Amino acid sequence: MADCIFCKIANKEIDSSVVYENEHVIAFQDANPVAKVHVLIVPKVHFANIYDLGKSEQKDEIMPAISEAISKVAEICETEDCFRIIVNNGEKAGQTVFHLHFHLIGGQELPLSLL
Ligand code: 5GP
Ligand code: ZN
After folding, report:
1. What was the pLDDT predicted at 32?
2. How many A from CA of 12 to the centre of ligand 2?
3. What is the pLDDT of residue 100?
4. Within 1-115, where are the H helices?
5. How far is CA 52 from the centre of its chain?
6. Taking the CB of residue 66, how many other CB atoms lie within 10 A of it?
């Protein structure tokens, strides 16, 4: 999608610090981390949010790829026993980038207020 920052990162038009990648998903370091580990797990195809993915036929292949990426990123970042996944869905929920992304935060004890 034109002018979508996460599409450009997924297409390697913009540099990012890639942590993990599979056929459907790219995971990269958040530019403004709120915890020691803060990685964004992003489907390569553009969906505005998780509601839109849920309505798509592609969910059946993309959701398992996201699930796999979550486990791989937790292992790569050595935070398997302590992490949180957050998806802000909609502006009123705090979403600022309208390309679906899963925040994986961890690497430290996590207060409930984060994100
Ligand atoms: P949201 O508020 O939409 O749930 O989260 C958007 C996240 O994307 C924020 O944590 C923000 O720091 C991150 N972000 C925004 N623009 C960029 C960018 O260009 N590169 C990277 N790596 N992260 C970004
Ligand atoms: Zn996009």
Report:
1. 98
2. 12
3. 98
4. 5-10, 50-55, 59-76
5. 15
6. 22
15 pocket-lining for ligand 1 (C-beta < 6 Å): no
How many residues does the structure list for the chain? 115
Ligand located closest to 53 CA: 2
- Rounded Cα distance between 23 and 61, Å, is 10
What residue type is 57 in one-letter code?
E
E strands present in 1-115: 18-21, 25-29, 37-43, 83-86, 102-106
- Residue 32 Cα to ligand 1 midpoint, Å, equals 7
What is the best residue among 16, 97, 100 to mutate for testing ligand 1's pocket, by most ligand atoms within 8 Å of CB? Answer: 97
Q: Which domains does the chain have, with CATH numbers?
A: 5-106 (3.30.428.10)
Q: What is the mean pLDDT of each run of 10 residues along the chain (115 residues)?
A: 94 97 97 98 98 97 98 98 97 97 97 84
Q: Report pTM.
A: 0.97
Tokens (6 digits) for 83: 């992490």
Active site residue 101: yes
